[in-house]
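Worked example
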Amino acid sequence: MVVHLIDGTYEIFRHFYGLQRRGGSECRRFGAAIGVLNTVLRMFSDGATHVGVATDHVIESFRNDLWDGYKTGEGIDRALFAQFVPLEDGLRAMGVAVWPMIELEADDALASAARIASKDDRVEKICIWTPDKDLAQCVRGERVVQVDRRTNVVRDASGVRAKFGVDPELIPDYLALVGDAADGYPGIKGIGAKGAASLLARYGEIERFPENVLGESQRRALLFKQLATLRTDAPLFENVDELEWRGPTPAFAGVCERLAAPDLREKASAAAAALRSVAERR
């Protein structure tokens, strides 16, 4: 069994700005949400059976209370943000497990889902579909991997080491030192990617650094590490069987009508029929 965990926030951003670049009639009101739903349906058509999608129902999280500069929803295009709820409703009606996050972030949901799925011996592989650097901390050997749809790269533990120069478990320490502009924290002044990797290779996690290495910046580095460390305790589901796709619910037809995307209903029905056919042949 392969479990696919999708960063719905990244996907809706990707589709929204992709449609803007292409322009024309494709920039319809729910174009980005429809694009994500089509992406998930293609995964089912390609053989995916167990899927979960995480979204940032609100952009802010508990991390905003820890660091004033942490990312917020300020500046997000209203037309984009207005498609989050329709996307969540569409996924739910399609029969897909969806986790709209409020206190935590979508990345925390993906990390939590990976942890829960990892406990099931039936799960051969867990694919986390996102290019976000912080999700690299969830990679474990060749069993839990990160899939970057943007570059078509599948990154296992050796791939994480090749890209960042550190093991997956040290990614929060790495990001604390170099910063993460997308999330709104700057890292430690004077420490770049190579310097961070070198320090972590020599000393291990930041808590083990000698006092003279970071000096007065030690406390700030530990704060940034707290921002970069994903939560894995979200109670999203109890059993991976809850992620198995069994086809769209009766409500999906109404969702397709509201989205003005009747082709989605046909694609969902075809994907469900194909999955049933495969199951019957086993």
Q: What stands out?
A: The chain has a mean pLDDT of 94. The chain has two domains: 2-157+231-269, 163-228. The longest helix spans residues 262-281.
